[in-house]
Amino acid sequence: MELVVLNTSGKETGKKVTLDESVFGIEPNKHAVYLEVKQYLAAQRQGTHKSKERSEITASTKKLKKQKGSGSARYGDIKSPTFRGGGRVFGPKPRDYRFKLNKALKRLAKKSVLSQKMRDNSIRIVEGLSIAAPKTKDFMTILNALALNDTKSLFILPDTNKNVYLSSRNLPKTKVMKFNEISSYDLINAGEIVFLEGAVEKFQENLKK
């Protein structure tokens, strides 16, 4: 399995990169992808929601009426959940929504997404980006050359590149990340995945650990 390497003008360079079948050519496991995406979204939740229970309401504790003889239901104090302004029964409390997943399952999820993207011809490889100074205009020129200006795209770098990151930061449809920071959610959320030359090998090695 091979992909042609493109330059920043969107033209073929004549070079090819060999992709590992065990990473880009497996049968996608949808449940593994579901679990990792669920884990990612759960970790984004603040979990600071809180409602007051009966014991936390500031109000009189006086019994509203006598227990028997009224002909209607018995009442306690005004803090009862049956009254407006009373405490809430089993209300939400601050909690951490994060949960753990096995590393093998998370690797399988990433491989599944990449394999599906490969089937959809949504993966490209571009030779190294060289931006002298952080300029969004320069990055937009590259996106236009690759016909990605109207598409959600994820650029995967082999190493930290501050100029590339800062140049793309203001673009809502473009995300730039290092190869070891990627989650399945990032891969799914991108319409096109662009590997910089050298990032593919490192990404494949990272998934084989």
What this model shows, in words?
With 209 residues, the chain is an alpha/beta fold. It folds into two domains: 2-45 and 100-207, Ribosomal Protein L4, Chain: A (3-Layer(aba) Sandwich), CATH 3.40.1370; 51-91, no CATH class. The protein has helices spanning 21-24, 30-44, 103-119, 136-145, 162-168, 184-189, 199-207; strands spanning 2-6, 12-18, 123-126, 153-157, 174-178, 192-196. A six-stranded mixed β-sheet has the order 2-1-3-6-4-5. Helix 4 crosses helix 5 (162-168). The longest helix has 17 residues, at 103-119. The radius of gyration is 27 Å and the shape is elongated. The mean pLDDT is 90.
Annotation keywords:
single chain; 209 residues; alpha/beta; Ribosomal Protein L4, Chain: A; 2 domains; six-stranded mixed sheet; 33% helix; 15% strand
